[in-house]
Design goal:
The protein has about 140 residues and is an alpha+beta fold. The chain contains 3 helices and 6 strands. Strand 4 and strand 5 form a beta hairpin. The protein starts with a strand and ends with a helix. The mean pLDDT is about 85.
Length: about 140
């Protein structure tokens, strides 16, 4: 199920929206650019209103999920699934917003020193209760 940025009665989803608000604020965009899917694994989509020099004509989005953390993807022209071009990686699925911002800056600059091509396995999709623990540790 996809939700929009409203206060959610489940604390874990409220915490996820709070995290997304911090990340989007650091990126200079608003929560209106986000959607959250709280099926397992929980995931989020953040539209970036730009294109990369290395991928002209393709809109860019950030994807987040509770297993791999953040990834950058480009839209296809045919409406098919997004094409993931790079994963942030790291130690946690909820890195500080400044780290996500550095990742996006590296994408814009075509700097391949930040991120990775293969998906990291940072944790299992073990349910919303466990995700709440992960989200609460970031504070």
């Amino acid at each position: 199920m996809i939700t929009t940025p409203t206060r959610h009665p489940l604390p874990v989803l409220a915490s996820l929206w709070d995290y997304l608000a911090e990340v989007t604020s650091a990126l200079g965009i608003g929560l209106e650019s986000c959607t959250v899917d709280h099926d397992s694994p929980a995931s989020a989509y953040v539209a970036l209103d730009e294109q990369l020099r290395s991928r002209p004509g393709r809109d860019v989005a950030l994807l987040w999920d509770e297993v791999h953390g953040w990834a950058a993807a480009i839209e296809t022209h045919s409406g098919e699934d997004l094409i993931v071009i790079r994963y942030l990686g790291g130690k946690t699925v909820v890195p500080p917003p400044a780290e996500v911002t550095r990742f996006v800056t590296a994408l814009r600059d075509d700097d391949h020193r930040i991120g990775r091509l293969t998906p990291p396995h940072l944790r299992g999709a073990t349910g919303l209760a466990d995700l709440e623990v992960v989200l609460s540790r970031r504070a």
